[in-house]
Amino acid sequence: MVDEPSRVSTWTLRVVVYGGAVAGLALVVAALRSADPPGWWLPVGIPLAVIGGGLASIWIGFRLRHRTAGARQRAFERMAARRVEVGRPLDRSRLAYRATRHKRAVLRSGVDATAVVTFLADGHRANEYRHLVYLELEVSRPGREPYPVQTGEFLNPASAGSVAPGRELRVKVDPDDPQRVAVDWERSLRLD
Fold this sequence. Notes:
By secondary structure, the protein is α+β, with helices and mostly antiparallel strands. The protein has 6 helices and 5 strands, in the order ααααβββαββα.
């Protein structure tokens, strides 16, 4: 039997949040009413009261909107699905941006290969000259089986319109790391 990771109980979280709010409020009130309070009461009490009170009000509002256990469970499931939906493009964007760091070096010293675009998506980063694109490629090198690669490229407006799934591109592959691939746009976009 596999042990599940331990989770902090709901009651423990409630004690921490509500206790922090009450303790912070008590420190602020005591500091304001005392003639000579210690210097740490206000700097500790205010953040505790604000953060604890804010979290407590969020939790109370959630419980008022979703009164039954079933409604709360459905709300948690919707939030989890939304987190996955929102997180996927952000993960792609991070991966694409990191992959662009080594493009110049790979273009200089890489091995020639071809790649077919299997998927592309917006990389959510751009400036006035270039736009980041997340690419999934199937790379083919002589003497090797085709393999998938996830990468990113900055495209100018002229080349962005010519890249779509199914398009074959000329690429360079890092001989030490076959997952590092750089598209040779000059050769890929050349008219035959």
